[in-house]
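LOG
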Amino acid sequence: MESKVRFFAGSSSKELAGKIAASYGTSLGEVKLIRFSDGEIQLSFEESVRGQKVFLVQSTMPPAENLMELLLMIDAAKRASAREIVAVIPYFGYARQDRKDQPRVAIGAKLVADMLAVAGATRVITMDLHADQIQGFFDVPVDHLYASTVFMPYIQNLQLANVTIAAPDMGGSKRANAYAKYLKSEIVICYKQRTKANVVDHMTAIGEIEGKNIVLVDDLVDTGGTLCKAADMMIERGALSVRAICTHGVLSGKAQENIENSKLAELIVTDTIPQHTHSKKIKVVSIADLFAKVIYNIEHLESISSNFIV
């Protein structure tokens, strides 16, 4: 029997979803969004999805309306008798709230995982979660993709001598180590102390920096404070150049200004979050083809591990 697959997009990811669908060899279905005068939204599919496998593409960065849109799409697909409902979440918002790091706080990532499952999602596809253990928050299958598949070729094409991979904090050491092993390079780990969220008070580094071309690796860049402070410190300690690769370009507040005025040679991000940058230092690489390949493999019951580099 011929496979029935349909792609739909929420407001935050229409451009990326269009690229994914085109790479897969199809087009986006139509979703109608009605907004009431008080801001409440109502979603509906403008074509039948009965008995079909639907892939709903939506990143869930703020505002929270993006998450609400995805939940409404999932619920609409369930009530329209879709056969399977796959939530494709390139950027999984609230992933930084993955544990109780102080008394009386919510675990936002777990709450979002529960809401997606209750709404009716039968599978989740996402990329570079802030913490790998978030996969365990779900009671449905999770396909966790890695942007290293598109970042590795980018780094190799730079043909830099004396490349050293760096983790901007202790939590990123595992990711940086994976890159370093693949590239057969040395590794540097930064240690930072924060006075409050998004503000780095002090930073130092462990490893050889002088005479190296440093590549900082992280899952996301928010205000850019950590990356800019790390780049400035490394240049002062004799690094030849410092660039950063970050999967999710949150880039809130004065992030673009901070990056433009820093000693970073460039910042490379993916299009999991739509980018409207005015900084010449910020480059965007697309992960659409990777998602399309993985979705094809999932639909044809084939392994997806061949799509991963590290």
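LOG (cont.) second protein
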Amino acid sequence: MAKGLDVGTMNILSGQQDGSETVFVQQRNSFVEIEYSDMAEQMLSRSDVLHIRKDDRVYVVGDDALGFANIFNRETRRPMQHGILSSNEQSAIPMIKLITEQVVGEPDHRNERLFFSSPADPIDSELSTLYHEKTVESFLDDMGYDVEPINEGMAVIYSEPADNNFTGLGISFGAGMTNVCLSYYAVPVMTFSVARGGDWIDEQAAQATGTPVDKVTSIKEDDFKLDFRTDIGGVEGALAIYYENLLDYVIENISREVNDEDVEEDLDVPVVVTGGTSSPRGFEKLFEDHIEDANIPFSISGVEQASEPLYSVARGALVAARSDEQEEATTQSPATADSASEEEAEAEEE
């Protein structure tokens, strides 16, 4: 049974098919450091709190990290920044490895197919995604998976516009980056990312209002909506301003890249927006209003938001992994299948 994995800056999620249902497992991609004591470690273990002990420190990881950060009045730390492994965080690799292991679990069988999301190189930054991609691929391979990276924007295409022959413009608004993919019959025509996302919004709003970033993030995740009725001066007003600025920035870069790629003008494609940053109510309408005014050389048949923005990339990675697994099964020759069956029978007799 194949699996899909969304390796996001804010959350790490896996998707796996269970009968007719898709089951998702999620953990926040963050941790907080607290002082070690025997009592503290015993309580953490008894409460099934995900944690690591290193020397005289304990690191609380995942969903529990935010709660502990609030209790101890500390900022959470992130293994990833700007959509890739953080070069400023020494504990990045062991932390993200632990979180990923908890989310994806052990393979159901040897060389189980797993597709994981990987961002495109950003066009507005010198950041390279290669080290991040190869590091994640390495520890998933060590776990026993048959691993393949999938462009994050392309995962959106696999997840959502299946009824349009996997043709469309998929945009994943993540925490660290925004990934864009224009696909034509499941073939990527244009892929890129920009180094702005939900974290950029939170940081700008925090700086403008003098509010801690974690507090801004909590407000954004707690029923925030983009209705522009909030009084300017508060955190929600600042969030609305920077949300609108991010949309303009992304659409401006889409227009520029489409023109550079010389995309055919007779295309008529749907746009799908997804990702945790696209979750606030009013996001879809705001994006639709802004892209209508953009100078894009092809027609847009409509804008829709993924029904479950947080799970969309993991679902798309799962669809790609299952498709690849099925294709491999159908291309397996009868002779190979018979040989494999004989080997299994011999192993059972032994």
